[in-house]
Amino acid sequence: VADAIDSVEDPNEGVAEAFIAAVSFARAHPMLRRAGQAEPAPIADSVELLKMGSAFIANYIHGEEPGAPSQQVRWVADVFARLFFTYISIPPSDPDFGDDAELRRFAREVLTPMVERAVG
Q1: How confident is the model at residue 48 (pLDDT cuts 50, 70, 90)?
Q2: Which of 50, 60, 63, 106 is spaced 20 to 30 A from 13 at the CA atom?
Q3: Are 100 and 26 within 8 A, CB to CB?
């Protein structure tokens, strides 16, 4: 995911590329592919995964700015982590989880504006 973000010059494209990279990773990872077919993970495990994912996302949205990520950035990061967790557990039909072009459009039209608003 970090490599996908770093591969584009436009930070707004980084949001879409990070989302596609995360989804592609989930599709390829045997345990994550089974996430929607098996028993849910224990709540404590899910909470820790969400915390780690949210912190990772917040740090990337925050970038090189001094200080800690703002509350708005942390909120957006938390929404992204929860969205990803839900999408791998219960893949949506719209946008089509198997169509990278459609997921990229979703990321550009829905996720990128959230980041833009959070960083002001």
Answers
A1: confident
A2: 50
A3: no
Instruction: Calculate mean pLDDT across residues 101-113.
Output: 93
pLDDT band per the 50, 70, 90 thresholds, residue 3: confident
- The C-alpha atoms of residue 81 and residue 28 are separated, in whole angstroms, by 18
pTM over 0.70: yes
Sign of the dihedral defined by the CA atoms of residues 14, 118, 84, 67, in that order: positive
4, 16 contact by CB (below 8 A): no
- Amino acid identity at 29: H
Long-range contacts of 50-55 (CB under 8 A, 24+ apart): 50/78, 50/81, 50/82, 50/85, 53/80, 53/81, 53/84, 53/85, 54/78, 54/80, 54/81
